[in-house]
Amino acid sequence: xxxxxxxxxLSRARHEVGKVIIGQHDVVEKCLITIFTxxxxxxxxxxxxxxxxxxxxxxxxxGAEFARIQFTPDLMxxxxxxxxxxxxxxxxxxxxxxxxxxxxxxxxxxxxxPAKTQSALLQAMQxxxxxxxxxxxxxxxxxxxxxTQNPIEYEGTYPLPEAQKDRFMLKxxxxxxxRAEELMLAQRTMGKESPEATLNSGAVQAVIxxxxxxxxxxxxxxxxxxxxxxxxxxxxxRATRQHESILVGAGPRATQSLMLGCRAYxxxxxxxxxxxxxxxxxxxxxxxxxxxxxxxFEIEGLGVPEVIQQxxxxxxxxx
Length: 319
Known about the structure:
The protein is of the alpha/beta class. It has helices spanning 3-18, 25-36, 51-61, 77-81, 115-118, 120-127, 162-165, 179-190, 195-200, 212-218, 227-239, 252-268, 276-287, 295-299, 304-314, and strands at 41-44, 66-70, 82-87, 92-97, 104-108, 129-132, 135-138, 144-149, 170-173, 246-248, 292-293. The protein has 15 helices and eleven strands.
């Protein structure tokens, strides 16, 4: 299996997802990058922009299982991981698995649950294992978390700890559709071709089976990245720790995420080599949620995306 097959699968996956999701091309690409690098993503967007439908569609197209957890203030860790229940017929305890035992998990409004419940995802995201009553259970090899946050409503929420944010490879922002896209959505809603109906009708085809994902991920190692570009990438991440407006910069995990991300971005773009533009394109999604600005700069209206652009302009691009 070569890189051409990887490019073909990515192209077909985008095409099939496009049958359901109207617009959001950049978001779809970033979700595919997350999946094909074996990482996790934090999706931020207002209600109704099809966050759940997007992850459901990706699971269908890639032949993977899907589960959704609606996070609430009273959600307990056992509600996510599962628990052992005594079986009277067998006279023994049996495991009732929670929704975390799936391939693609949508953690909806993750910041609505308290820290104890949020932390139940930490071990699963990092090690793909779950501990229940001192026993460790393996999760599927393709276990991927897409956690969503509502950016406009913070009452009754529990902000994610920085350590947990760092475990998300990308922060993906889903914006409202353009007028033409929303017009198309309105027209399709009136008929039998609504996005949900299209997904349920069988019109969307699976391009691979879930067990093929592991093999395809290995093909990313064949994407060539020059040593000069590796140095450029490292300098960008290190600059976040030295910029005058940044209180806390990105750590070494950000370097690894950016390395994986720009390789996958090159593959999605149909190339078998990384360019400086690939690194620049992935720097924002990889670094944005890992950076904390100094309060005095936030008061002046400076945002993290603007700071990242300043850093990219300051570092010389290798030729």
